[in-house]
Amino acid sequence: MKFMKLGSKPDSFQTDGGYIRFVASELATDMVVNVGDVKFYLHKFPLLSKSARLQKLVAATNDANGDEIHIQDIPGGPAAFEVCAKFCYGMTVTLNVYNVVAARCAAEYLEMYETIEKGNLIYKIDVFLNSSIFRSWKDSIIVLQTTKSLLPWSEELKVVSHCLDSIASKASIDTSKVEWSYTYNWKKIASENGNSLQWNDARKPQMVPKDWWVEDLCELPIDLYKRVIVTIKTKGRVSGDVIGEALNAYTLRRLPGFSKGVNQNIDFVKYRSLVETIVWLLPTEKGVVSCSFLLRLLRAAIFLDCGETERNELMRRIAQQLPEAKMNDLLIRAPPGEATVYDVDMVQNLVEEFVTHSSRTEPVDNEFLGSRSPKFGPDASKVLVAKLIDCYLAEIARDPNLHLSKFVNLGETIASFSRPSHDGLYRAIDMYLKEHPGISKSERKRICKLMDCRKLSAEACMHAVQNERLPLRVVVQVLFFEQVRATASAENSTSDLPGSIRALLPGGSHGSSRSTTTNTEEDWDSVPTADDIKALKGELATLRLGSNDSGNEAAKSDVEKVAASRMKGLVMSKIFSKLWSSKERHGEISSSDTSDSHGSVNAEETKSTPSRSRRHSLS
């Protein structure tokens, strides 16, 4: 910290009580200066020789008052006036970063110009500021902080603007030229430089990070911080990602509980202004601020009831970067009075905004996608968002107060997003059914329509077949598509499959498996009993046996091949007769494709398991 000493005489100012200051001298004092609540008993000659204002005030006083003058509005108050008075007496005065601005403003108030006396206080302070303070990184920051209590004097004297320019210039300098001390999280820089805090082999210090200046500026109040960031932006030499890092660090430091949830016991007005300012300062470039930071800002903005403009701006930015979001960041608490735990409507709006944005733009070119997985095509962002919302749905499904319509509406928003697997969505649906056992058959049917059974993995299919919470139609669908896939895989071709089955294979049709179960009987929407599950599992085992047998068909005799094929057809028709008859009634399957199946169905109707024939007649 820089400092400057003025004068050489010993300090002879003394105190009599808390509100009286006087100069210990053989000469009697001949003037009284009232500064606020403090009385200064001083001598005219040393003060009037350096202050034009005191000359005027003394000349204007009434003789009856005995040269007593009142100064109520001097910047810096009694402390700043005392510094100026000691300078007039030639006593030793130490100026530092904490009192120099107050002394400069007080000297300006007292009109201690060079025209009154050469080498006056204003001149000496200006030399100190320009030669020392404004050349120091940390001193400039501290001095800028002191200017706030001295407005508008510090602004009119350009002390604020000089501080801003000094700080912004140093923050914008090439990092190779940074030679001053600064505050930085060395754990972070160690990880960036190979986990070593020591000098390297060439005996050179660690590289200065691009955001070396970020933490020191966190000491500034939000109004001054805003002006510093604006000045740095104006110079145009600092990238948007560093500005974003600075805003993130400042918010973490200044907003209590920002990383985990804003503290309830805070000054709402103060911190609302802080969040709104941070939103206003966000860089305009897309992707330079992390989506996680934006979502935490949105959470704070909602909690602090920030303006609609700020919230809409955050929603717009987040929607553009939604593919890089993390599920935990979406778990924003619902507003007071809501029955649900999380604000599902807000996430719904984000996804809808993402869909709108995606429809307006060209195929995605988000920078962050390149580092995630190059295997994704032009729809990579939609795949990422679909996975994100699948995870979110699984989390909010645990809420017993979550209405089915909110779950389904959010799921339907991403229904058009093509993704290779529906395992995540199945997990979410299963979690909702588990936590809401009292929903009706129609509601179970509605929520299960979100899922495409063709896109379930083998593990998910095994779970679904044994899942007593799923409607019977879904269990049968899973078995059906597993068998179709097994058949196609065994034959290594789908050319020999009936056209209606080929249409149901992934890639064979862009339609959903939901179309295969439209308008079937009510029983197919019911929850299967333990007997149903047992029967289906037994039939699945038979299907597997048949599939394994088909894999070795090359080694079998013609008679064995025919027998294995016929057995597989009988078991398949036993399970799917209901499904095929329903599809035929709705014109979904041509007669040529289904005639053989129906023949098998009629032959095997009477052989259904007792429990299934009782509950689900196939006639």
From TrEMBL:
Ranges of residues in domain BTB: 29-97
GO biological-process terms attached to the record: protein ubiquitination
Keyword Ribonucleoprotein: no
Domain NPH3: 211-485
Residue stretches of biased makeup (Low complexity): 590-600
Pathway as given in its UniProt record: Protein modification; protein ubiquitination
Keywords, sorted A to Z: Ubl conjugation pathway
One Pfam family recorded for the sequence: NPH3
Family statement drawn from the similarity comment of this UniProt entry: Belongs to the NPH3 family.
Full protein name: BTB/POZ domain-containing protein NPY5 isoform X1
Source organism per UniProt: Gossypium hirsutum (Upland cotton)
Source organism phylogeny: Eukaryota, Viridiplantae, Streptophyta, Embryophyta, Tracheophyta
Gene name of this polypeptide: LOC107913278
